[in-house]
């Protein structure tokens, strides 16, 4: 009588082994897929473009994001040591409205200066590929901002992130990977509400975030006149750029700014640009219409994506035409949802959020090549930049490999144009470490 029972037990064990093997194979396949995405080589077209612009895949990169225009720029260092624009990507989806992120659940995509290390790159993203913006930074923390899982990722769906198409984020991810492999220890992301031109500053002159935006524009101007990544610090709950504190002093995000130095060539160039921009803003403000201050808005997307969605309305698929930059899913504007509710009640990351990924040992990186950094005039009023395109090279100071003239001393204190009570927003994320293979 025991034989049928033995046969049954044997069959159960065999079935269990089969399930275990299937799960192991599935996990292996998933791992292979993650590795394939993370290590996808740059296309021949991108390699050719990099060469045409006097760059190499291994040179450092920098990213600028503009909400209102819905554009993401990738800049890379050329063989001369200056940064030049490599490519501009239309953003498929961003959420919230113009202005910084304040708290968890406000669906705001953050604005500010963020540093991306290899450990913030996530090849195992729920949104194809992603990198964590590293919110909250010191500035955000000084205002008590809350939020999690704020990314630049794929899948064209956002609840506080900057969402690209899968094809776009794949290329951006690969560009960052190659720069890390070349020795760059971290790259900078500059996230702005719009291009900081006199025209845009004049249009938004009544926005309650203007003082904050003028502080951001100081960093924007540093980059514009030097074509070097600005060194970012925070003191007095404000950003300061390319500033070296006097001996024995240090920057404290919550404390008053200490006395610090900036190279006079950079300070003078930034100040001259600020004066010229201010004059244009004053002139434009006499006649330029004022942009409405939106509340409760839910972000936007680049016109190329909006046009494609309208063209595809009623169609059974959302594949882009050949001239469009990638593919998007059917849902690009999910209903409003508090991120904390999404994370707790759904048992999965909310749109724009990331699942935790086990940490791996970070890749060994060579020291980053040193480059002269531009320095803005501390306390100088931030200004708008003329034109939507980067300024001509003629407007920048001496080449980055030339020694800068004597530094000018700037005394501490909160920039006069930024009040302590200004409303600022930010978002925060924690990303797993990843080892990349070439």
UniProtKB/TrEMBL annotation:
Keyword terms, alphabetized: Cell shape, Cell wall biogenesis/degradation, Peptidoglycan synthesis, Signal, Transferase
Chain positions covered by the region annotation Disordered: 318-337, 382-438
Extent of the signal sequence: 1-24
Superkingdom of origin: Bacteria
Positions with biased composition (Polar residues): 420-438
Domain spans labelled L,D-TPase catalytic: 61-192
Pathway entry: Cell wall biogenesis; peptidoglycan biosynthesis
Catalytic site: 153 (proton donor/acceptor), 161 (nucleophile)
Chain coiled-coil ranges: none
Cited InterPro entries: LD_TPept_cat_dom, Transpep_catalytic_dom
Family (UniProt): Belongs to the YkuD family.
Name of this protein: Murein L,D-transpeptidase YafK
């Amino acid at each position: 009588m025991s034989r049928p029972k033995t046969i049954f037990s044997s069959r159960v064990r065999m079935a269990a082994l089969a399930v275990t093997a299937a799960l192991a194979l599935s996990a292996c396949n998933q791992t292979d897929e993650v590795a394939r995405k993370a290590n996808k080589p740059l296309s021949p077209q991108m390699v050719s473009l990099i060469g045409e612009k006097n760059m190499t895949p291994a040179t450092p990169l920098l990213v600028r994001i503009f909400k209102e225009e819905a554009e993401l720029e990738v800049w890379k260092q050329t063989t001369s040591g200056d940064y030049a624009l490599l490519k501009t990507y239309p953003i498929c989806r961003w959420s919230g409205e113009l202005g910084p992120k304040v708290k968890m659940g406000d669906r705001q995509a953050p604005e500010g200066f963020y540093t991306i290390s290899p450990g913030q790159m996530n090849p195992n993203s729920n949104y194809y590929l992603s990198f964590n913006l590293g919110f909250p930074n010191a500035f955000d923390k000084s205002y008590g901002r809350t939020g999690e899982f704020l990314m630049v990722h794929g899948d064209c769906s956002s609840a506080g992130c900057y969402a690209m198409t899968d094809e776009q984020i794949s290329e951006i991810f690969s560009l960052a990977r190659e720069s890390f492999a070349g020795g760059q220890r971290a790259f900078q992301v500059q996230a702005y509400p719009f291009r900081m031109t006199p025209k845009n500053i004049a249009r938004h002159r009544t926005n309650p975030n203007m003082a904050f935006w003028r502080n951001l524009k100081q960093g924007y101007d540093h980059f514009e006149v030097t074509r070097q990544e600005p060194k970012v610090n925070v003191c007095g709950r404000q950003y300061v750029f390319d500033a070296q504190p006097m001996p024995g002093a240090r920057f404290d995000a919550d404390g008053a700014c200490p006395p610090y130095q900036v190279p006079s060539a950079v300070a003078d160039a930034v100040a001259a640009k600020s004066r010229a921009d201010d004059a244009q803003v004053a002139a434009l403000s006499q006649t330029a219409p004022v942009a409405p201050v939106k509340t409760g808005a839910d972000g936007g997307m680049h016109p190329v994506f909006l046009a494609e969605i309208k063209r595809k309305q009623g169609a059974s698929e959302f594949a882009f035409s050949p001239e469009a930059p990638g593919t998007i899913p059917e849902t690009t504007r999910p209903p409003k949802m508090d991120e904390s509710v999404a994370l707790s009640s759904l048992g999965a990351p909310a749109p724009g959020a990331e699942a935790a990924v086990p940490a791996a040992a970070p890749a060994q990186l060579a020291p980053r090549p040193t480059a002269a950094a531009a320095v803005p005039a501390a306390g100088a009023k931030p200004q708008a930049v003329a034109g939507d395109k980067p300024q001509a090279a003629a407007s920048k100071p001496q080449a980055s490999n030339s020694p800068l003239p004597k530094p000018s001393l700037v005394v501490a204190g909160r920039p006069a144009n930024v009040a302590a009570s200004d409303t600022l927003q930010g978002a925060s994320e924690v990303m797993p470490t990843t080892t990349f293979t070439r």
